[in-house]
Amino acid sequence: MEIYEFKLVKQVDFSEADPAGILHFSNYFRYMELVEHAFYRKLGISGFMQKKKQNYGWPRVHAKMDYLAPLAYEDQVEIHLLVAEKHKKAMDYLFYFRRLPDRKLVAKGHLTVVYVSVDPQTRKLKASKIPDEITRSIVVAPKKLLELEE
User: Fold this and answer.
1) 57: helix, strand or coil
2) Does the record bear Thylakoid in its keywords (predicted)?
3) Cα angle vertex 145, ends 42, 98, to 5°?
4) Does 3.10.129.10 match the CATH number of domain 5-144?
């Protein structure tokens, strides 16, 4: 199975909104992470693995968000993850946030994550080659999806 996208629908919770009832800007980054980890689960892997012989994770090295329109308390939003680039040790993901039911594009995000091994003794991270069993499952999204317009 080759995967290049994942979608998740989320309702804006009261605790995520500011006093005006608007989704706080920082929560868009939490939503990206929520979708990213659901994407990994669909692939049958974890976003963070800590076992005796296998310790790895996907820390962020770049994150960006463009805000186009607000989301408010109780709004439904579809977050669409697309694999934008695939490298030997890193992945780039694009995220499109669409308010439902009108599907208005309200934000666009970008994450660059690096696959790292974690030394179980020192907890130091080391960029590592993404395992073949993962890279075989993930492909770059079609160009027409990556160039989505507002």
Assistant:
1) strand
2) no
3) 75
4) yes
Cα–Cα distance measured from residue 70 to residue 115, given in angstroms and rounded to the nearest whole number: 32
pLDDT tens digit string along 62-96? 999 999 999 999 999 999 999 999 999 999 999 99
Q: For the chain, what are the domain ranges?
A: 5-144
Question: For the chain, first and last CA: distance in Å?
Answer: 30
Predicted confidence (pLDDT) per residue in 3-36, tens digit: 999 999 999 999 999 999 999 999 999 999 999 9
Are 32 and 111 in contact by the 8 Å Cβ rule? The answer is yes
Residues 22 and 71 sit within 8 Å (Cβ to Cβ): yes
Give the Cα separation of 97 and 109 in Å (integer): 8
Count of Cβ atoms closer than 10 Å to residue 71 Cβ: 26
Contacts of 35 (CB under 8 A, 6+ apart): 6, 7, 8, 79, 81, 95
